[in-house]
Design a protein that fits this description.
By secondary structure, the chain is of the alpha+beta class. The protein has 5 helices and 15 strands. It binds nickel (II) ion (NI).
Amino acid sequence: MEGRALMATGSDSGAALSARQIAEFHIRGYLAVPDAIVDTAEIARLRAIYDEMFAVRAGREDGNQFDLAGIDDDNRPAGLSQILHPHRYFPELAGQALERADAIAKQLLGPAARTEIFHAILKPAGVGAPTPWHQDEAYWDPRSQYYSISIWMPLQVATLENGCMWFEDGSHEWDVLEHQSIGGDVRVHGLELVNPTVIRNAVACPIAAGGVTIHRNRTAHYAGPNRTNEPRRALIFSAALPDRPFVGKRQFPWNENKQTARAGRASEDLAGSPRAN
Ligand code: NI
């Protein structure tokens, strides 16, 4: 991997980005690291935990496991199953991958960056729904100003066929555009850009198992459906600098309008809760 000589300041050099990769990330608002940043034992370890936590639907009662793309009916298989904060249920997820994601985060955001295992998204074999174009910040509380990144790690190869990530080059510089619940159905948690014709420079990022893509809080992104016979497993780390109050006024009415089954299960108010995508 290019740039291994330019190591992170920490002792774990496995995730070190080169100066060119760091510059590219800041210019484009995304970066693909196509080769694995963790060893194969770590990928196998995470896959076993991952399959177990989706098998038991960890977090279902708390509203942290739900179908991102459908109406989240208990009797229907999820097209795009998500578990938020999976480490609360499976703390053993922490390990080499988290350490290396944190090393990357500190290279990109500085030493104040805080990294966590944020969520897991499973696209089931054959039926995995596409993740429509959106900006993550559209899910969050509009009263805060964010500087954050998501580090997306597939636990098998991520290809055009099974739903690799796509990014709109330079879109991290955009405002948060108008969003709506997927398909305009307020029972669906997932969001999509109301006007996806703004996407003109989309770049697909197929990567190896244990590779990563990295994007900013406003970078527009998409993932295709899973047309293969294998589940597409992705684990997503989030790293952020402390939030600040947003200067000015803005509203994200698409979050206030939601009427999801998930919110009915949850004990906390999920609308506009920070980084609840
Ligand atoms: Ni997203």
